[in-house]
Every structure is written in C-alpha cells, then in structure tokens.
Design a protein that fits this description.
The structure holds two protein chains of two kinds. By secondary structure, chain A is mainly alpha-helical. Chain A has helices at about 65-70, 70-80, 85-100, 110-135, 140-160, 185-205, 210-215, 225-230, 235, 245-250, 270-295, 315-320, 320-330, 370-380, 380-385, 390-400, 405, and strands at about 25, 40-45, 50-55, 340-345, 350-360, 365-370. In chain A, strand 5 (about 350-360) and strand 6 form a beta hairpin. Chain B has eight helices and seven strands; from the N terminus they run αββαβαβββαβαααα. The chains are: A mainly alpha, B alpha/beta.
C-alpha cells in the first residue's frame, strides 16, 4: 500500500549539497537537550555556528483556537499544558486576566494561598531548570539532588490539589480548596530546609572549574538585544535591566511582601545561573512571610460575584437561587463584559501575558497568550551565530525554554 | 423541519441561548487624563500621525491609528517615549463583521512600567509594514500572525510559516476555520504520505479516543474468543470459546506477585 516514491523526505528550502566548507546540520526535534521539540537548523563552519534557524511547531496544539471554543472555566485546565513545569503560574495568569476583565476582587485567604502556590511553583520550576541545565552541561549528581527536593515540593502540591504537574489549583475568582490539615507545617519545613540544599548545589557548581568554563562568557545577551527581543524574567535581569513585574506592576500580595530582585550585568549564562539560585532564596523568603499571614485571614475562598462565579458548595446545596446560578454558569458559562485586557504576570520563565478580547459572549473572542519562552527561543537565531557547537546546549538550557508554551 | 442555518464566516462555538433582553456590560473606556505620562505619549503620537481614538482601559492606554502609520507611530513611541519593548503583537479576526483584522501592538516602557496598546484595522488583503527594524521580537510575532491569521506583512526579512508546516493551506486562527480542521487538514498526512487515492482505503481519522470497534480484529482482541489478527469479523462471531490464561499464573522470571502482607509500609516520609 505504501508507495515508496511518495515518501521522499523534503527539507524546506535547504541546500544540503554546498560548494563551500559550510555544513548544515539538524539539531532536534528529538534531541534530549533541546528541552522539548526544538529543531535547530545550524549552518556550521568547522565547529562554529554561522547561521541558526530555530524551527518550532512540533508541539502545536492550537490552544488559542481551543480557547475560542471553550467557556472560560473550561479553558483553565488547558493552560496547565503550556508551561507544564510550573502549571500554577499559567492557571494564575489566565485567572487574573479574566478577573481583571470582569473587575473582580479576590478574598484575602485565596490571595495568600495563590501567592504561596505561585512561589512554590517558582521553586519547582527553578529546581527543574537547574537539574536539567546541569545535566546538559554534564553534572549528573546535581540533577539527582535537585530532583529530590523537587519531589518534596511536588508532594506538597499533590497534598494540596491532588495533581503533581497539571495542577489547575487556581480558579477564576479564587481557589477551590482551603489548605489541608498540617500543610502549612510541611511547607514551612520544606522552605526552611531548602536554603541549605541550595547551598549544597552552589558548593557543587559555583566554584566548579568545569561549570565555570562551560558557562562564563557563553550566551551573552547584551541589554539592547534583550530589550529588542522582548526578553523578560531572568533573561532580562541577567542583562542588567532590573525589571520584575512582581515589583513594578504588583499583583496579588506582592506589594505587601518583602523580597529583593537579583540583577546581574554579566549578561552570560553564569550570571543567569546565579540569579536562579538567588531567586529561589527570595521565594523561600516570600513563602515564610505568607505562612505568617495565613492565620489572620477570613475563611472565604471564592469571590462573591453571583453573575460570574458559582456560590460556595454549601449555598448551592441549600439555596435555590445559588443552584440556579450555578446551573447557568456551568451549562452556558459566564459572560464577561465587552472589552479587552492584557494582563502580564511574572511566571518563573518571564512575562506571561494573557490578552483577552471579549465580545460579551461566554466564549472569548480572541485569546492570545504571550509566553516568555516564545521570545527566548526566537532569540536563538541572533544568539547562536559565532558560538561553538558545544555551547549550543548550554545556551538553550540557559534560556530556560519549555515547548508547551512556545508552540501552545 | 428546516435545517438550522450556520454562518460560514464564523464557525466557532456560540452560546446556544441568549436572553433577548440581555445587554452585555462594557469594560469602561476612560478618557486620557490631561497630564501625566500617557498624555505625553499620546501627544507624541498625535504629532506624527493621525490618532483615530484613544482611551484608557483597565489602566493601559489604547491608541487607534491608521494601518499605514504603524511603523511611524511605533518608532516615535520607541525613540521619543522609550517604549523599548514590544511584548506582544497579533491580530483579531473581524472578517465576518467588518471584513478585516484588528492588529494590536503591546508596548512596554521599562522605566515607567507603563503599557500602551497601539491598534489598527486592516482590510482582508491589505498588508502592513513590518516593525522588525524597530523591534526584533516582531520577527516571530509577524510570522506567527501571517501563519495563523493570514495578515500580510511587507518587508519582513524571512516571511515563512512559523508554527504550521510550510505546505499548509489556510490560516487556522481565522473564525472561518473550523476547530477540527478543514478538509485539507483532516487528510494532510494521508495525502502527503500515501496520496489522495489512499483516502478511501485508510478512511477518516478516528477522533474519538475511546472508540472500540467490535468488528475490528486488527486492533482489538476479544478475550475468550480469540481469532487470528485481521481475520474477518464473522469468524470471530462463530469461533468457539478460547480459554483465558494469564502469564503470571505460571510465574514470570524475576517478577514476584504483590502481596500486602509481605510488603512494608513506611510510617513517615524519609
């Protein structure tokens, strides 16, 4: 049945037979260090990269299209699948965008829990980054240590919401559940132990000769390039520009919390590595403050907005009107006002923004997700030329891209 | 009975019921204040091109301009007002209502932490100027916009599909493009690998992951009524019972059966 002549592979507009000494090689899409489905078409002169063309789209699921065909609450679990390393950051970004569109105030306890989860996710994501980055560069034992701590953090997530990767723990209007018994104690134990673990990683890496040789001066992103390419998060702060959305455009409880924004102007992978370590310490600091805040909060978890948000379960089961509202909200979906918002949040990878255009329908008219990795992947075409092929893996690892949110 | 009319220009999901008297509320559009950062930004844009409309929505300035002025306006905002980062740009499909797209450029000033959305309306086949010389981030954003929405961009250095395959037909994010794909999308792999003539043999893609076909002896076994793989379904109907045996019953090399009595449960996490 299979006709052999139809199976001829095709390479888009690429000449493989060349007269000069340049060689074209394909990196990925199944390369273990490509952090997902990245295909890099590299033109090499010896071992030096002359031209790099990142080719994406291998994980494209059409999330923006799906969003136009789902009611708002239905779409929330889909956002888990963007940056699947830190799913709560995506859930939260989407929930916050819808809340801004509606103009909703979230109860304080929900805010505390959400901020806690966001920071816990930041730790999970940074640990994962460090583990895989170190593994890419060749430090196997760091990978094992980081994954041990990440397991504990994911156990905490699991204790709270039942899922380890795709949390959906944040809902539009608040959080669905209060913290379980003893969870805060376990969280406090985890974050109190983490700094000593971070010190262990640093002992293994920071002054390690091989680590420094592989990272220092590799993947230099000048500040102009970072601005022009729309780099955010650590990619921006690693280039000496102090901009953190949590500080500059505070959302949730970040304006009440004390934390520092680490910045470096070395612009290279080594500087970014140091920022990641410091950010984990700051997250620990934030979580410790939040644990103290939790006890003084009233027990409400979801915003009271009957037109948009279902009433608490107890009301639904006892009060007729709440049940009717719930029925309409589940079967038809909420109808946010006509208008558009762009809401940026600081995800572990950078600026995660949701642009929602609503026409007053239960389905978003257009939803555009601004994923930080998309731009951090695009920058590779300017960043890689001139580097050596051995550094490519370091540079890809240092940009911390994840393909769930590049292709969406 | 009449078949319900479904408009072809927008095939996305729609509310199945809307109250006749429902009037959708609107997100307030506040006027731009007389003084402040946004007033100066707006004045700078007004000095270089025509501003159709400007207002503040949820704390961000929105400026409508003509599509021909997009490069000029963004240049002024970047060089005179230090909006140095193009955090996002894309299009919204209004082909059904107004015959065109609404483009938005989401800009960020890193010093004042202010955000501006510059918007313009383009007709279906009208092309806009690439802002790639100003912001490198527009490189991929414009490619994605062309790929998924079909908005043309002039003077882009490498205008090629970004996310969909190069030989794709159609622009998937348009409202006229169905969620499950058009005919081209549904037969893409079959046409490409085996040729159009193989469509009948292979058949349409099964989009129900839970579907079980009891007559399909290629992919499904019938425990207790085994037939050779690919045997006609009638044979399966007629075949007598085959005994069900499990491999583990005789024991598998190196594998032990789980027994709760012999396993140990830890008191607490190590």
């Amino acid at each position: 049945m299979q006709q052999t002549n139809k199976l001829r592979p095709f390479f888009e507009n690429l000449e493989f037979e060349r007269d000069d000494n340049h060689m074209v090689i394909n990196f990925g899409p199944q390369h273990p260090s490509a952090h997902g489905q990245l295909r890099l078409i590299l033109e090499l002169d010896g071992e030096q990269v002359v031209r790099a063309v990142p080719d994406i789209g291998y994980l494209h699921r059409g999330m923006e299209k799906m969003a136009e065909n789902m009611i708002y609450n239905e779409f929330l679990p889909t956002t888990d699948r963007m940056d699947y390393i830190a799913a709560t950051a995506n859930n939260y970004g989407f929930a916050l965008a819808v809340e801004r569109l509606i103009g909703l105030e979230v109860p304080r306890r929900a805010q505390v829990i959400r901020t806690m989860l966001l920071e816990l996710n930041r730790i999970i994501s940074h640990l994962f980054w460090l583990a895989t980055h170190a593994l890419d560069v060749g430090a196997m034992s760091v990978f094992l240590y980081c994954f041990r701590e990440r397991e504990f953090a994911m156990d905490l997530m699991e204790d709270y919401c039942g899922a380890r990767l795709t949390h959906s723990a944040v809902r539009i209007g608040g959080v669905p559940l209060d913290l379980p018994e003893g969870w805060l104690g376990a969280l406090a134990k985890f974050v109190n132990e983490l700094p000593s673990n971070i010190k262990d990683y640093e002992d293994l890496l920071t002054e390690n000769r091989i680590w420094r040789m592989r990272l220092e001066g590799v993947g230099v992103v000048p500040p102009e390039m970072a601005r022009s390419w729309g780099c955010t998060g650590i990619m921006l702060r690693g280039s000496g520009i102090e901009y953190d959305i949590r500080k500059e455009e505070p959302y949730e409880l970040y304006d009440e919390l004390e934390f520092d924004i680490p910045v470096t102007d070395t612009c290279d992978s080594y500087g970014r590595y140091k920022l990641y370590m410091e950010e984990m310490r700051q997250s620990v600091r934030i979580i410790q403050q939040l644990i103290a805040m939790y006890d003084d909060t009233p027990p409400e978890l979801m915003a009271h907005a009957p037109q948009y948000i279902s009433a608490p379960k107890e009301d639904i089961m006892t009060q007729n009107y709440s049940l009717m509202q719930h029925f309409v909200l589940v079967t038809q979906g909420m109808r946010p006002p006509v208008g558009e918002v762009y809401v940026p949040t600081e995800s572990p990878k950078g600026e995660l923004g949701f642009y929602i255009n609503s026409q007053g329908e239960p389905y978003p008219y257009r939803l555009k997700m601004r994923a930080p990795s998309f731009w951090h992947c695009g920058i590779l075409q300017d960043l890689l030329p001139g580097t050596y092929i051995a550094d490519i893996v370091t540079i890809i690892g240092s940009t911390n891209i994840v393909f769930g949110e590049i292709d969406r | 009975m009449m078949r319900p009319y479904t408009p072809k220009d927008n095939v996305q999901a729609k509310a199945y019921y809307t109250d006749r008297f429902w009037v959708a509320p609107r997100v307030p559009e506040e006027p731009v204040p007389e003084e402040g950062v946004y007033a100066e930004d707006l004045a700078a844009v007004k000095a270089c091109c025509k501003v159709l409309k400007a207002y503040i929505q949820r704390g961000q300035l929105v400026i409508y301009i003509n599509p021909e002025d997009n490069f000029e306006a963004l240049k002024v905002l970047k060089e005179e007002r230090w909006y140095e980062m193009l955090s996002e740009m894309s299009a919204v499909d209004f082909l059904a209502e107004r015959g065109g797209f609404e483009l938005f450029y989401q800009l960020l000033n890193l010093n004042t932490a202010k955000r501006i959305r510059v918007k313009c309306f383009v007709e279906e086949n009208q092309a806009v100027e690439s802002v790639n010389p100003l912001f490198r981030s527009a490189d991929w954003a414009e490619r994605e916009m062309w790929d998924l929405m079909g908005v043309k961009v002039n003077n882009h250095p490498y205008m090629k599909r970004l996310i969909m395959p190069d030989d794709w037909e159609g622009h998937p994010l348009r409202k006229s493009y169905p969620l499950e794909g058009d005919e081209f999308a549904q037969w893409y792999e079959v046409d490409k690998i085996f040729g159009k003539e193989a469509r009948d043999i292979i058949g349409p893609e099964n989009r129900d992951p839970a579907r079980i076909d009891r007559y399909d002896t290629e992919r499904f076994a019938r425990l207790g009524h085994e037939v050779p793989r690919g045997a006609p379904a009638e044979e399966a109907e007629k075949s007598e019972e085959t005994p069900v045996r499990y491999q583990e019953e005789e024991g598998v090399f190196l594998i032990e059966k789980f027994s709760p009595e012999r396993s140990k449960v830890l008191e607490r996490r190590k």
